[in-house]
Amino acid sequence: MSANIELKDIHWMIDMVHNIDVGIVIIDPDFNVKVWNGFMENHSGLLTKHMVDKKITDIFTSIPKDWLQHKVDSVCLLKNKAFTTWQQRPYLFKFKSYRPITSDADFMYQNVTFLPLTDMLGNVTQICMIVYDVTEVALNRLAFQEANKKLEKLSHTDHLTQLNNQIFWRENCALEFERAKQSSTPTTIIMIDIDNFKKINDTYGHQFGDDVIKGVADLIKKETPQSAFIGRIDGDRFAVLLTKTELNNAQTIAEAIRKKIEVIVFNCQEETIKVTASFGIAQMKESMADYQAWINITDLGLTRAKENGRNQVGIFEHE
Q1: In terms of domains, do 298 and 255 share one?
Q2: Mean per-residue pLDDT for 159-180?
């Protein structure tokens, strides 16, 4: 009777291991598969008879041998559990994701636990890998992180032009001032102001004014280096932070933008309107007290451009 009970218990355990909704893989220290349960069969398409006594790294070549060896050695030596999570490694076995709720996933995200299995003398003879499908958790976490990134970007972005807003631009200007001061790297600001913008707004309306601002913003993005940090710092005023750029090179860039702006044609009803812009430039100098002094000198260059007739580049030399 007791023998029958033991056989029934063994059958029950085998049945549970085979049908449990997690992957159960048992390997020896040489990576040879000893147990391959139903979960692994279903998701890999490989039956137990295809896997037993085969090296797991020969069948799943995407599993790094050195990495798995390190895990196995750690479990055998310490006789303790080891883990890997989807954040560290998205998956150990590249299975497709079949759950409808996770239909956006190309593969199954997995957490894996490594367990030491010992003989009667306490020696680790096999390692059990328990594979958990955590795709739902992973996708929810990734979606949350992506949402946070979008919210952060929105908090830094001017909604009309999609440029950096004034607060974020000034924060970066302050950081760049300190970096440039410590490294003696030439860094220059270009300040841009649309000429007579109030008159444009009053004459043609705020909607047209917004179109002008967006048009100028798009042109500035197109005509400045990819590394430029551009911001809308007031209604019709923009600022461009140019790292590793000396004054004469910044002046060349500003002049190119100025020429492009004066030939843009904006349409309002049946009328075509052209606009111009004035520019101020200042290169950061160690004698400047802080980033605000740098901005002030750039503003003085812009003021000079406007006083001299607008539609030009002004430079106020800082002593």
Answers
A1: yes
A2: 95
